Amino acid sequence: DDVAGYKEWDDPVWDQLVNQMSVDELALLAENSAYGSPAIESVGKSMATDVDGPSGISSNNLNYYGNTYTTEPVMAATWNTDLLRRIGEAVGREARMGGVNGWYAPGLNIHRTPFNGRCAEYFSEDPLLAGKLAASEISGAQSKGLYVFAKHFVANDTDQDRGGMYTWINEQQLREI
Q: Is the pLDDT of residue 163 over 90?
């Protein structure tokens, strides 16, 4: 907590922090960090709870259901970065009240195909608009102490058989996105 958000990833303080942890603690952290992470006493890390939900915080795993906001395509239709920041702030306040530390959202993929299994979780087919809105929402959530896992960053074109899916995208398309 003393350095999170204040030090760059390559600052030596991170090596110092990790070097204080035992191999068993590192393994515990790596093995048990879905929808949260365990407490690690040697470095004073408290248990953390993370939840899913691009339309608000919720978790089937934890039986936690918060407010639900409209879907990201509807949010994108507003073109309103101030509104998205306020939504992020509201999610952050609710998370704090519910004891939630992290949020698996927003969805940052773009609409490349109407057959995508999660079009309702992505803002737009326009990457600039999607990026601006996501940055505003993330900034709002972070301003209330919520850390954010932006998900489905690029070319997640289907949810069916996604463990072995093949996404076709050439270098020019990827660069344009």
A: no
